[in-house]
Amino acid sequence: MSISPIRDEATIAIRERVYVDAVRAAGWGLGVNFALMIVKLVGGIFTGSSALIADAVNSIGDVASALAVRGALGVAQIEEDEDHPYGHTKAESIAGLCVSLLVTFSAGLLAIETAKRLGGELIVPGKIAGVIAAVCAIAKEVIYQYTHRVANRLRSSSLQAVAWDHRCDAIGSGFIAVSLLAAPYLGSAAPWVDPIAAICICVMLMIAGIRIFSATARELMDQQADAEMVNEARQIASQVGQVIDVEKLRIRKSGLEYFVEIHIEVDGKISVSEGHRIGHDVKDALLIEMPRVRDVHVHIEPHE
Fold first, then answer.
1. How far apart (Å, rounded) are the C-alpha atoms in residues 56 and 268?
2. Do residues 51 and 205 make contact, with C-beta atoms less than 8 angstroms apart?
3. How many of the other CB atoms lie within 10 Å of CB of 242?
4. Which one, 91, 245, 284, 296, has the greatest CB density within 10 A?
5. pLDDT, tens digit, for every residue of 240-281?
């Protein structure tokens, strides 16, 4: 039994706020990434730092990722239609998957290109490259902290992917800063510091991309929601009048929202009409008490 969702103004406001916060976080990430991309690229060209240029190219990917996530969040809010009876919420998850693939692929290419330069003439970039990298690291850590908090609160896979990318960039830029500022004092080893730092950054990005891909793929395969949410839904349903037990409960995440399939046990001697009413009550309770739930499918089972 699936009934048209019923919601009060409070739950509608919470649901809308989820998307407002997610879009804002994606927008801040886009703006910061674009600004840092320009700074790193110009700084890398003028100082001759391959590590800084590698970081700038990664920021180009970050800008593309932020645009993809921003667009996906817009698509995810489109209501159900005949071709998409469950809505478009998985667009957000698909964006997270695309970000992970982009991070992994671009990092691999950068590592290969940087490794090729090891056989040629190596130079020691100026200290200004290290200063630029240090400023970028601080900026990236700040935007990571903000995006990470929003992603955790909303349980957003795409924002988690973007946040982790911010953290990798912060670590990478910090590593570049330390390496480049120390390079002039390392003697004959100094020319090797910059390209090796670039390769290390690429490896870290590839590992992060694989982790993000794995987490988002599990979501797209309709993995069961976390135990805390499942227990909350079970408790809400059990408190509805005439519900004897919850036989089966499945909750799958779809973007920033959830779909619930629940089997409840009622007295087998009651009428079909009465069982239908109880199903309505269970669904209404779940939708009102759990605003992130988009829809609920209720099965009525006779209690043995």
1. 66
2. no
3. 14
4. 296
5. 988 888 989 999 888 778 899 999 999 888 898 998 899 889
Residue (of 213, 270, 206) closest to 244 by Cα position? 270
Q: DSSP for 176-224?
A: HHHHHHHGGGSGGGHHHHHHHHHHHHHHHHHHHHHHHHHHHHHHHTTPB
Q: CB of 258 within 8 A of CB of 294?
A: yes
d(CA 246, CA 299): 10
Specify which of 5-9, 232-236, 284-288 reaches the highest per-range mean pLDDT: 232-236
Q: How far apart are the first and last CA of the chain?
A: 21
Exposure b/e, 56-74, CB count within 10 A at least 16 = b: bbbbebbbbbbebbbebbe
CB atoms within 10 A of CB 80: 14
* Residue with tokens 């406001």, as numbered in its chain: 13
In the block, tokens 């992917």 appear at 161
Instruction: Identify the bridge partners of residue 297 per DSSP, sorted by sequence position.
Output: 2, 261
- Is residue 263 within 8 Å of 286, Cβ to Cβ? no
Q: Residues of 222-237 as b/e, b for ≥16 C-beta within 10 angstroms?
A: eeebeeebeebbeebb
Q: Is pLDDT above 90 for 186?
A: no
CA distance 200 to 205: 9
Of the candidates 29, 32, 95, the residue with the CA atom closest to the CA atom of residue 256:
95
One-letter amino acid at 148 equals: H
Q: What is the CA radius of gyration of the chain?
A: 25
Mean pLDDT of 198-213: 78
Residue 89 amino acid letter: T
Closest CA to 270 of 239, 242, 241: 242
CA distances from 114 to 38, 182, 234 (A): 20, 20, 54
